[in-house]
Design brief:
Its EC number is 1.1.1.2. This protein has eleven helices and 17 strands. The chain has about 350 residues and is an alpha/beta fold. The strands form four sheets. Strands 3, 4, 5, 8, 9, 16 and 17 form a seven-stranded mixed sheet that branches. It has a six-stranded parallel sheet with strand order 12-11-10-13-14-15, with helices on one face. The longest helix has 14 residues, at about 300-310.
Length: about 350
C-alpha cells in the first residue's frame, strides 16, 4: 500500500503565524482506507479561529481545512464503499469510536469519546491530524461521503462544513413549507442557510448589519432582507419567526433576537463567538422559546445534504484562490470581504 511521506501542504507553524508551504506525512493506506487526491479545500472561519488559537490552545504545526473535495486514487484491500475515480468529500471529522449510542445512530459528530477532528487533533495512534490545505489525504472509507455528479468539486467543497452546519439544524427543527426562518449574517454559513431554507420551502428573511448584500440575499433565495443596525427592524419583526439561525461569530444581544421569535420558536447558534454571551432567562420563559446550538451532522446526514443540494441544483458561492493567497484570504474573511467562500485550488500548493 502507498505511504506518502512528503505531501505538499500549507501550515501555520505557530499560533497567529502566517501559513507557509511545507510538507507533511500521510499514513500508509490501510485495508479499509482510501487515498484521496484533494482537488479543492474551502476556507472556513473556524480555520482562522483555530490557527490563531481563538478557541483555545491548539496543535502546531497546523494544516487547516475541513471542507475537502477530491477524487479517490487508491483503495485498501477491504474497501467496499468506493472505487478508484470516485468523487468524494471529507468534512470536520475523520474518525470516531464507532461503538457509542451516537455513533451507532449515525451521529458521529456527537461521539461520546469525541470524534477525531480532520485537523488540530490526534488520531487513535496519537499522531496529529492534518487537514485539507494539502494535496492528499488518507481516510477510512466510512468517513468519506460521495459527491453527486451534479455538483462540481469546487462548489461542493464548502458544503462539507458550511452546507451541513446549516442543513442539520434546519432539518432538525422541521423547516419546510409554512416555516418562517431568519438567517443572521450572509457570509460563508449564512448564504448556505438561505439557499437550503429556501429549497426546503420556507419563507426566508436575512438579518444583516446593513443592506449592502441585499441583492445577493434575494438572488440566493431570501424573501425579505433587513438591517440589524436599524432599531425599527426589531420592532417590526417582533414575534415573526419559527426559527432564527445565527451564523455569525460575533457576540449578539441574544435577548433582543429572542424577541423576534414566535411562541415555541428556536434561536439556533451555529456561529461560535470567541467570547461568552449572556441571556436573561425571562426572554426564554415568555413564549416557551428555545436557545439552542448545533454543530455539524453525521456521515449519513452529510450525504443526505449533498444529495439535497445536487437535487436542487446548487453548491456554494465561491471565489477560487491559489495557495499563496491563503493569508490574504484569511484577512479578507475577517473583513467580510468574500462572497461567499474562498476555495483553494490545491493544484497550486
Amino acid at each position: 500500500m502507498t505511504s506518502l511521506s512528503a505531501v505538499p501542504a500549507y501550515a501555520a507553524p505557530t499560533a497567529k503565524a502566517p501559513l507557509e508551504r511545507t510538507t507533511i506525512a500521510r499514513r500508509e493506506v490501510g485495508e479499509h482506507d482510501v487515498l484521496i487526491d484533494i482537488k479543492y479545500a474551502g476556507i472556513c472561519h473556524s480555520d482562522i479561529h483555530q490557527a490563531r488559537e481563538g478557541w483555545g490552545e491548539a496543535i502546531f504545526p497546523m494544516v487547516p481545512g475541513h471542507e475537502i473535495a477530491g477524487v479517490i486514487s487508491e483503495v485498501g484491500s477491504a474497501v467496499t464503499k468506493y472505487e478508484v475515480g470516485d468523487r468524494v468529500g471529507v468534512g470536520c471529522f475523520v474518525d470516531s469510536c464507532r461503538e457509542c449510542e451516537y455513533c451507532l445512530k449515525g451521529q458521529e459528530q456527537n461521539c461520546v469519546k469525541g470524534s477525531t477532528g480532520t485537523y488540530n487533533d490526534t488520531d487513535k495512534h496519537g499522531a496529529p491530524t492534518y487537514g485539507g490545505y494539502s494535496t492528499h489525504l488518507v481516510i477510512d472509507e466510512g468517513y468519506a461521503v460521495r459527491i453527486p455528479e451534479g455538483l462540481a468539486l469546487d462548489v461542493a467543497a464548502p458544503l462539507l462544513c458550511a452546507g451541513i452546519t446549516t442543513y442539520s439544524p434546519l432539518r432538525h427543527w422541521n423547516v419546510g413549507p409554512g416555516s418562517k426562518v431568519a438567517v443572521v449574517g450572509l457570509g460563508g454559513l449564512g448564504h448556505m442557510g438561505v439557499k437550503i431554507a429556501h429549497a426546503m420551502g420556507a419563507e426566508v428573511t436575512v438579518l444583516s448589519q446593513s443592506l449592502r448584500k441585499q441583492a445577493d440575499g434575494e438572488r440566493l433565495g431570501a424573501d425579505h432582507y433587513y438591517a440589524t443596525s436599524d432599531p425599527e427592524t426589531f420592532e417590526k419583526l417582533a414575534g415573526s419567526f419559527d426559527v432564527i439561525l445565527s451564523t455569525v461569530s460575533a457576540v449578539l444581544p441574544i435577548d433582543t433576537y429572542l424577541g423576534l421569535l414566535k411562541v415555541n420558536g428556536a434561536f439556533v447558534n451555529v456561529g461560535a463567538p470567541e467570547e461568552p454571551v449572556s441571556v436573561n432567562m425571562f426572554s426564554l420563559i415568555a413564549g416557551r422559546k428555545t436557545l439552542a446550538g448545533s454543530n455539524i451532522g453525521g456521515i449519513a446526514e452529510t450525504q443526505e445534504m449533498l444529495d439535497f443540494c445536487a437535487e436542487h441544483g446548487f453548491g456554494a458561492e465561491i471565489e477560487v484562490i491559489d495557495a499563496d493567497q491563503i493569508n490574504e484570504a484569511y484577512e479578507r474573511v475577517i473583513a467580510s470581504d468574500v462572497r461567499y467562500r474562498f476555495v483553494i485550488d490545491t493544484a497550486t500548493i
